[in-house]
Write a structure and sequence with these properties.
The complex is a heterotrimer of chains A (about 300), B (about 600) and C (about 550). Chain B is of the alpha+beta class. Chain B is built from 17 helices and 22 strands. In chain C, α9 runs antiparallel to α12. The mean pLDDT of chain C is about 85. The chains are: A alpha/beta (about 300), B alpha+beta (about 600), C mainly alpha (about 550). Chains in contact: A-B, B-C. At the A-B interface, α2 of A face α3, α4 and α8 of B.
Chain lengths: ~300, ~600, ~550
């Protein structure tokens, strides 16, 4: 892991001149230093980041607050200019506007014009992609249905709840059927259902062949959806790799079985002992809180009525 | 109304021979070089000399290679519409309410005893709408972009394929659009306000036995005397800048007189201006005399000498003088004069100084006889019938003004003072030929177009400043630009004439030490005084040259034309359009560079 | 870092509160009957300069002041600049509009009203050639001042200027005849003035033709101004001249109507009214710039008092005389010295006069003399000396003040002009000149001759008139008479003496010869005061 702030000035060969390559995002020695008004160094927000995001994968940026995830995203989108190093998207310099044709961006909070309603919002962003009117209308309709805002389509955004705002934000990010989706904290502020839906949607989008870059500090989310993650801390890359391989504990074996008697359990323990293994735990599994919550909501949707205490 | 010679130029004359275009281009080049230099310096400090150069070059090549070709009308329109809606949301329509309140209380602010109520009304509506829409432009334009950056709504914009050009120009368009709509509405309201405010009629109070003359009652703070023709119809005398028609109506065997609405105060005269030259006492071409006034506008001709003033008119066409559907024989040449008398001795106080007019062909072979007049000191209309006696090659002859004296659409008018030792004073726009009047409503509209142009300039500057300053600061900067443009002439005078009391630093010293402007600063230290003086001079010089880059709103104002009922020259309006367009280009370009090079998330 | 921000916020808040406290103390408005308000309110109260007590609260003015926010000074400066430029470039309409705005912006700056009204009525009006146009601008100046008085109810100065403009500007300029005529017939303007609270229908305001006369109307403004001064408001003018304006206006009114041919009882009445007003003015207690309160008619009593004091002091210091004479012996001629030795009772009046003259050579100033007195009498002498100098100083000031306003001249003039003979003299001249214009030479000469006879009587009775400008006009008439009759003025010409005297006077001014002749005329007038009650009409 290089901590060298001197970035290579030339474009990476893997990306340059080959837009069809399966590398969608590439950063090379990407660094950002925030300075105050007088040019004095204030924060070293990102230190020489080298990352590649491949086509079709969900890439998660993970880290506590202030670790540099948002800075990375802003640099990749061209909202910030790197202090050193470079970022490429679809083989183009991050500061180039044309790359935005294929990008959808859901900001941390939905920074939208509160005086527009859902239709106007989508129409406005559609226009920004120079989409012809019929396409714009069709696409808006589709997205409004998809994010479930068809009943609130004529209401001004300032009347929206947080979840609704989030959803219109997502719709706005998808207006151009982007190849790359950049999601900044996609599940913050959402209730567990919303969160789940968001995650399902992300997975569905990946199935459609889209590349997704997201950042979050909610570990569960990342674990649930991301193919690969990078863990940032204090502006430095600490870990990078596939989620499954990163999380796999290689010397522990997990067995899930149903309908075993106490005798059977004892027998299994013995078998383990015989094979020289160590029985760490034999227990009934608990579900996660999320699973419990979602399960009960699903139940209640299927059979309405009070159930607690029965 | 007084005009400067440059106002008379046609658009083409200004654009090419008078180097309007060239000046614009050279200004653009100067600014471009200066801008490049400054941006390179800034980039060098940030990125080092090589990278800095690369960065600047990239922004420029981006502009030409991608951003201008990539600019799409649909995106422009989207941003414009957004700005429009944003302005509405920010309750700009409150301007209407302010204006209507202003009009309701106009009586407080207007001195209705004036001799020219029409001028007063028009000045009032024009200047108040002007101020209101300029302030409006200022407020809506300066806060929009900074607010977007602060709310981070800009994130969702710049992550779309929106060009920096579109962000700037779209805003200018959007704000201009809302401004235009408000201005149009204000204009319509003002028009109705003026027309209705001036409308009045009179009852007839006294009429002579023969029913040929009389007097009206006092209404709207004035009355009229009138003379009637044999049929009982006629005009009242002029009072407060207007007349009324009087028509006799037979009702139950009794003659009733009906006084019509006011006429002649809401006009759009079409004066033809000439080039003025003077001859001195012995008849040689000279400069005209100065009788000792500060103002150089009017020059004087001496009575009882060969001294004269000569106007050379071009584009004198017979058809322009036809009123209604007069027959050719009835067409008259209307001359309007506003000539001043200056007496070297009082003489006969009661009789005004006398002058004379001669119409002459440009080759000087044909001229009319002297047409005498008494100086009126206010606008004096002379109607000259087309058949007139005069001289052809010094032989008495009967002449046709339009066929004989006017040659190749050119005509000379000579003015002399006929009282010896008295003087007549005149400036170029003090004698005009009056062609057929045009519609006041359209002229009024042109006045509003003029205001619209100023508003657009303010919006351009507001948007430009807002690309790199925070909202309030951008507003103050725009306001400073506006005041510099409105009061720039004062600053110029300050700089050129060396006002007593000195510049800013000296004033700051004078104020607490209570030294009036008439006494010397006298700090007891000549060197220090000199330093202060020089710093002041440098500051004033800076401000004065800065002024060259900013729009001169006082020159862009055309309200005088509408107020004094003169058809606003199309050439002048076109020129202002061109200037506005120039500022639009300038500010959009500057705005573009800032948007392009600014970190939106910083 | 958060605590730093917090601390900073707290500091700002404290600073704001700290700044607000003095602001509150200063600016708190007065509330209720007991609440005195802040310092500013108290000061306003003390000096009685609250907006509403200064004069009318005009909504437009308040709006202007509000609209300019704190930039009133800047706005005013810009407007002044504009006004200057408009004046320079002769944009008169714009100038007057700008002045309006300016005065609305600074409605309580008396000098703005003062100087800009002057600008309009004097500077701008004279730029026009047509007298009607001039009249309009004089009126604008007057209007401007009237508006000023409405904002500044306690400024007698503005009313005073109104009087000045209405009287002098309209009544003394070259085009006075036209101005006065226009003013008399300007019914709309009369109405405006009535609206301003000036009653133009009262006899005080109307002239011989029952129409408002500018001199009389102007006088009403003066009187309004006087009323304010009597109510205790200060006017920055010397009272001597200030209070003379109203009676003067009456004199000038008399002159004006006579000039315009009103030469009958009305003229006599006008003059007698003026004379009466003048003597009332003479009885007023007036403060001089030196601090004395005097009466212009009090000269005789002041002189008497001085003489009395001189007498007393002389008596007191009599004993020092021989000593003084001895000390200054060398300076006397022998004759003088001899006379001085003669006891006072034995001297003839002539001798006494010579003694008095001679004593001047050695006499010391009273307080020096008093110092020389023996100790026991010194205090008393010093007091007497002081009294003497006070009295003589007072008399001197009275005399000076009279000179300042030409009191005696106007007193005499008033007395003379109301006599039938004087009016007849003027009437005959007026008629003669009318006949001259009509080319009726015989009648002209006839009238002229009657005029000279009457003038002869008047001038002999009032030799003071020989000098003044009224006799300049007479001189011109005489010359006109001489040229038109084509004759040198023979010995039978009744005013020969006057004509010759003026010739001498014009040559050697106040030379010995002039003075000698004049003294002779005065003596004659005292010895044989003619009767002016019945004019010579044959």
């Amino acid at each position: 892991m290089s901590v060298d702030t001197q970035a290579p000035a030339s474009a990476p060969s893997s990306v340059a001149g080959n837009a069809a390559s399966d590398v969608v995002i590439e950063t090379r020695g990407l660094s950002k230093i925030y300075r105050d008004f007088w040019g004095r160094k204030k924060v070293h927000a990102l230190k020489s980041l080298d990352v590649e995001v491949k086509k079709g994968e969900i890439f998660g940026l993970l880290g506590p607050n202030g670790s540099g995830k948002s800075t990375t995203i802003k640099l990749i989108l061209g909202l910030l200019f790197p202090s050193a190093g470079r970022a490429f998207v679809f083989g183009k310099e991050a500061s180039e506007v044309t790359k935005n044709e294929r990008i959808g961006y859901l900001p941390e909070e939905s920074y939208l014009y509160k005086f527009l309603n859902a239709e106007e919002t989508l129409d406005f962003y559609g226009r920004l992609f120079d989409m012809p009117a019929p396409v714009r209308r069709e696409r808006s309709e589709q997205l409004i249905q998809m994010v479930g805002l068809h009943r609130a389509r004529r209401r001004q955004l300032k009347e929206y709840s947080k979840g609704m705002t989030r959803r219109i934000g997502l719709a706005q990010a998808l207006i151009n059927e982007p190849d790359l989706l950049v999601l900044d904290e996609p599940t913050t502020g959402l209730d567990p259902i919303g969160s789940r839906e968001m995650k399902d949607l992300i997975l569905k989008l990946r199935e459609q062949g889209k590349t997704i870059l997201m950042c979050s500090h909610q570990l569960a989310d990342v674990q649930d959806v991301c193919d690969r993650i990078a863990i940032l801390h204090q502006g430095e890359l600490k870990e990078l790799g596939r989620v499954d391989s990163l999380l796999k504990v290689r010397d522990v074996t997990e067995v899930h079985a149903r309908g075993l008697t106490e005798d059977a359990k004892r027998e299994i323990a013995e078998v383990i002992k015989r094979h020289g293994g160590e029985l760490m735990q034999i227990d009934n599994p608990t579900v996660t809180m999320e699973e419990l919550f979602l399960e009960s909501i699903r139940e209640s949707d299927a059979r309405p009525g009070r159930r607690a205490g029965s | 109304m007084r005009l400067t010679p440059d106002q008379l130029w046609s658009f083409y004359e200004w654009f090419i021979p008078q180097q309007g275009l060239l000046q614009g281009i050279s200004l653009a080049i100067t600014l471009a070089i200066l801008g490049l230099l400054v941006s390179y310096l800034v980039a060098m400090v940030r990125l080092g000399p090589g990278e800095g150069f690369y960065a600047v070059a990239k922004v420029i090549s981006d502009l030409i290679r991608f951003d201008i070709p990539g600019t799409r009308s649909s995106r422009l329109w989207a941003i414009a519409k957004l700005s429009f809606m944003e302005a509405i949301r920010r309750k700009v329509l409150v301007v209407f309410v302010i204006f209507i309140i202003l009009c309701m209380f106009a009586g407080w602010l207007l001195d209705l005893r004036t001799d020219h109520p029409a001028q007063l009304y028009i000045t009032f509506v024009l200047s108040s709408t002007n101020m209101l829409v300029l302030l409006l432009g200022l407020f809506i334009s300066a806060f929009s972009l900074p607010a977007d950056i602060k709310n981070r709504t800009i994130y969702t914009i710049v992550t779309k394929p929106v060009r920096a050009t579109e962000i700037v120009v779209g805003r200018i368009f959007g704000f201009s659009l809302i401004g235009s709509m408000i201005l149009a509405a204000l204009g319509l309201f003002s028009y109705v306000f003026v027309v209705r405010g001036l409308n009045h009629t009179h009852e007839i109070t006294t009429i002579s036995q023969d029913g040929r003359q009389g007097k009206t009652e006092v209404a709207a703070r004035h009355d009229h005397v009138f003379k009637l023709g044999e049929d009982g119809n006629g005009y009242t005398e002029e009072a407060k800048g207007h007349q009324h028609t009087i028509t006799a109506v037979q009702l139950d065997n009794k003659t009733k007189y009906v006084v019509g609405p006011p006429t002649g105060e809401l006009t759009a005269k079409v004066p033809i201006y000439g080039r003025l030259t003077f001859t001195d006492r012995s008849g040689n071409v000279g400069e005209g005399l100065n009788v000792g006034y500060m103002s150089e506008y009017r020059k004087y001709v001496a009575g009882g000498s060969l001294s004269s003033a000569k106007w050379q008119f071009e584009r004198v066409r017979e058809s322009d003088f036809r009123e209604g559907n007069e027959s050719d024989d009835d067409i008259e040449l209307t001359i309007e004069m506003n000539i001043e008398a200056f007496r070297s001795f009082k003489g006969d106080i009661v009789t005004p100084v006398r002058g004379s007019i001669i119409l002459r062909s440009p080759d000087e072979s044909i001229e009319s006889q002297r047409i005498y007049f008494l100086v009126k000191e206010s606008v004096d209309r002379k109607l000259i019938s087309r058949t007139i006696s005069g001289f052809r090659n010094n032989q008495p002859a009967t002449l046709d003004v339009f066929k004989d004296i006017v040659m190749n659409e050119k005509l000379e008018v000579i003015v002399r003072c006929e009282d010896s030792q008295q003087y007549l004073g005149m400036g170029a726009s003090d004698l005009t030929l009056q062609a057929k009047e045009r519609s006041f409503a359209w002229n009024f509209a042109k006045g509003y177009i003029s205001i619209w142009l100023q508003m657009v300039i303010v919006i351009c500057f507001g948007v430009m400043y807002s690309t790199f300053l925070s909202g309030p600061v951008a507003m103050v900067a725009t306001l400073a630009t506006l005041s510099l443009g409105l009061f720039g002439d004062i600053i110029d005078r300050y700089f050129k004439v060396e006002y007593s009391g000195g510049g800013p630093i000296e004033s700051i010293i004078r104020m607490p030490t209570q030294k009036g402007v008439m006494i010397d600063l006298d700090l007891g230290n000549v060197a220090l005084e000199k330093v202060i003086h020089n710093i002041d001079y440098a500051i004033m010089y800076g401000v004065s040259s800065l002024k060259g880059v900013f729009p001169n709103f006082s020159r862009l104002g055309t309200s005088d034309f509408i107020v004094y009922g003169v058809d606003l020259f199309d050439g002048l309006l076109l020129r202002h359009c061109a200037i506005t367009f120039g500022f639009f280009l300038l500010t959009s370009l500057v705005g573009y560079f800032f948007v392009k090079t600014r970190e939106m998330a910083a | 870092m958060n605590t730093a921000t917090f601390k900073r916020k707290i500091f700002y808040m404290l600073a704001m509160v700290a700044l607000l406290i003095p602001l509150f103390l200063l600016g708190q408005p007065p509330s209720g009957p007991r609440g005195q308000g802040g310092t500013l309110a108290k000061l306003r109260e003390r000096f009685d300069i609250g907006q509403s007590s200064l004069g009318q609260l005009d909504p437009a003015s308040e709006t202007m002041r509000l609209a300019s926010l704190g930039l009133r000074g800047v706005a005013a400066t810009i407007l002044w600049q504009y006004a200057d430029r408009f004046k320079e470039e002769k944009y008169w309409d714009l100038l007057s509009a700008t002045l309006n705005q300016l005065s609305l912006l600074q409605p309580h700056f008396v000098s703005v009203w003062e100087s800009q009204a002057h600008n309009l009525a004097y500077n701008v009006s004279s730029e026009f050639d047509d007298y009607r146009e001039r009249y309009v601008w004089v009126k604008k100046g007057i209007d401007f001042l009237v508006r000023g008085t409405q904002f500044n109810r306690r400024q007698p100065l503005l009313q005073y200027h109104l009087g000045k403009y209405t009287t002098l500007k309209l009544g003394r300029s070259d085009e006075k005849r036209q101005f006065r005529e226009l003013f008399r017939n300007d019914n709309t303007y009369h109405k405006t003035l009535m609206d301003y609270g000036l009653d133009l229908e009262q006899p005080e305001a109307t002239g011989s033709d029952r129409k408002p006369d500018n001199w009389l109307v102007g006088r009403l403004w003066f009187i309004k101004s006087y009323d304010l001064v009597h109510a205790g408001y200060y006017c920055k003018k010397s009272p001597i001249i200030y209070f003379g304006e109203a009676p003067w206006a009456l004199f000038y009114y008399g002159e004006a109507i006579e000039d315009e041919g009103v030469l009958d009882d009305k003229a006599m009445f006008a003059w007698s009214r003026a004379a009466k007003a003048w003597s009332e003015y003479g009885n007023l207690d007036l403060m001089t710039t030196w601090g004395h309160t005097i009466q212009l008619r009090g000269l005789d009593s002041a002189n008497e008092a001085t003489l009395k004091a001189v007498e007393l002091f002389r008596e007191q210091t009599k004993e020092l005389l021989p000593e003084l004479i001895e000390q200054g012996k060398d300076r006397f001629t022998t004759d003088e010295y001899a006379l001085l030795q003669k006891p006072e009772a034995d001297r003839t009046p002539q001798e006494q006069q010579m003694v008095d003259m001679a004593m001047q050579k050695v006499m010391l100033a009273p307080h020096v003399l008093a110092q020389r007195m023996p100790r026991e009498k010194r205090a008393e002498s010093i007091q007497l000396a002081n009294e003497l100098s006070e009295k003589s100083d007072f008399a001197f000031r009275v005399d000076r003040s009279r000179e300042m306003v030409n009191y005696q001249y106007w007193e005499t003039r008033g007395e003379l002009e109301q006599t039938p003979t004087a009016v007849a003299a003027r009437r005959h001249v007026y008629e003669a000149e009318k006949y001259l214009i009509e080319a009726d030479l015989n009648k002209a000469i006839q009238s002229y001759e009657l005029a000279w006879k009457n003038w002869d009587r008047v001038l002999r009775r009032y030799p003071m008139m020989l000098h003044e400008e009224s006799s300049d006009a007479l001189l011109k008439s005489i010359e006109r008479y001489a040229t038109s009759t084509d004759s040198t003025l023979g010995d039978d010409f009744p005013l020969n003496w006057f004509y010759r005297y003026r010739a001498i006077r014009d040559k050697n001014k106040a030379g010995d010869e002039t003075i000698r002749l004049y003294d002779e005329f005065v003596r004659e007038a005292e010895n044989q005061p003619g009767n002016l009650d019945t004019p010579i009409e044959q």
